[in-house]
Structure formats: C-alpha cells, structure tokens
What we know:
Protein name: LysR family transcriptional regulator
Function: NodD regulates the expression of the nodABCFE genes which encode other nodulation proteins. NodD is also a negative regulator of its own expression. Binds flavonoids as inducers.
Structural class: alpha/beta
Family: Belongs to the LysR transcriptional regulatory family.
CATH topology of the largest domain: D-Maltodextrin-Binding Protein, domain 2
Number of strands: 11
Shape: globular
Helix content: 25-40%
Pfam families: HTH_1, LysR_substrate
Number of domains: 3
Strand content: 15-25%
Keywords: DNA-binding, Transcription, Transcription regulation
Order of helices and strands: HHHEEHEHHEHEEEHEHEEEH
Amino acid sequence: MRTLDFVSLRLFAVVIEHGNIAQASRVNGIAASAISKRISDLEDQIGVALIHRLRDGIRPTAAGQVLYEHVRGINSAVDRLQADLSEFTTGERGRIRLWANTSAVTQFLPEDLKVYVDQRPAVRIELREDTSARIIEAVRDGTADIGIFSGHIGQTDLEQRIYRRDTLMVIVPSGHALADAKAVTIRDLENYDHVGLQVGSSLQAKVLEAAREAGVEINLRVHVFGFDGIRRMVEAGLGIAILPQGAVLPYLDSRSLRAVPLDEPWANRTLYVAYRDYRALPLVARYLVETLAPLA
C-alpha cells in the first residue's frame, strides 16, 4: 500500500464528523467535488469502501469507522507535536482561530482581545462569530483552536473554563405595555410578538425551551442574525426581545427602548472558553486562554 496522504485523511475525518461532504466543503473552503475525489482515491488505494453515500449525507462503513478512529489519533498526535515545538519559540508570533458566540463578541471580547493584542502584536487572531452549537463542533473537529459559547448548550466533551457571566433582560419599545414593569417572567411575554436570533442560537433555543416548560407559546415574528438587528427591530415596533444585559443597557440613551428585568432562574447565564486539549494548544493560544479565563 502506498503512503496515505495526510490531507486526504484529515478531510475524510471532517466528512465523517459532519456526516456530509457539502458541509465539510464549507468548513474547509474546498470544493465538494475535490473532497469526494480524495475520498474515492483513498478507497481505491486501500481497496475497500470507506463511506456509504446517501441522499442526505454519508455514513461510514465498518472500515471507514476504523480509519476514522486512527485519523483522530493522528490529529491529536500532530496537535501535541505542534504544541511541544511551540515551546521552543517565544510565543510572540502565530495565528489563533477563535470562534465566539454573539454574546461574547458583543459584550466582552473587544476589550479582552485588546489586552492580548497589546501584549503580543505579532499574533494574528482570526475571529469568527457563530452559534454556540457550531462553535463546539468547530473546536471538536479542529476548525477552531478556541471557542466561546453559552452554558445553555449543555455538557460537552471539551476542556473548558468559565469565561464570563451575564444576565438576560427583556427589551421593549418605548410606550409598550411592559415598559414600566418592575420585572417580568416568561409567562408575561406570551401575548406579544417577539424578535429572535437565527435558528441555532443557544439563547433563542433556551427561551423557547423555557416557554415550552411553562406552557407558553412564543410568537417569533422576525428572526435576525445579531443583537444590533434585534434592537433595531424592537425600536421599529416589530416585537419585544430577550437579550443579555451588556447588549441592552449601553443602548438605552436613545429613549426608544426600555429594559425590563427578566425574573427567571435561567436568566443568569455562564459563558465558557473551550478547547480540545490545553497541552496541545500552541503557546500563543494558551496565552490567550490565560488572558480570557485565568485560573484562580
């Protein structure tokens, strides 16, 4: 058997983890046809089918599952090798792939990243804003070095530290029936149109989950991607919304919005910094973890 191509093996593993060649194509920025060709070449080289190609994705064969487990071990070994070699540098240069949810990007990261960049100006940080679920996937499959996500997403198999805590509030347009309320619960919000984040947002999923548990129906009139879009939609009178405190209070000077405390236990959230293996992180990425979430 000829020597197996490491790039093809890595792409094969990403396809297995996503269960879909098209998704692996988007994550890696490589044409789906090129990835499919690499997998076919692997199958020809090994002499056995590695995936079942289905209408809605792929499924590994028994041989494909064995190969995937070995590739995961190879990837971990390469990560550790890179981390060990980074110890021989000063940790002043490099690249960090950081994925973070909207709450972190909007409220906390600008100031925290400024502290880090001031100390290590030669380090390049590639920041991507995404949903918590996709951030966890990106860290797990190695697309991101570090991820920041909401604890609402539940338990993960990643190493993690507490990054920040925030509090959810309700924002309403000025003159709204709830504008002068001292506090509200999810039940108080049932009879109003809502503006929410896009599908996949852990915040929006938590709101809908809490509503179901309370027997409340939430009418999501508009979905948008970011907090700025939500605030503008609420200002325009298209509905009310639930947002983190840090994405609300700095924007109340316009007098077109009002903030109301949300009296629910789940309104207090925790944001986490996560990574696959701290020891396997390049030195520059470890420094960023320590900046964002230093151990006590």
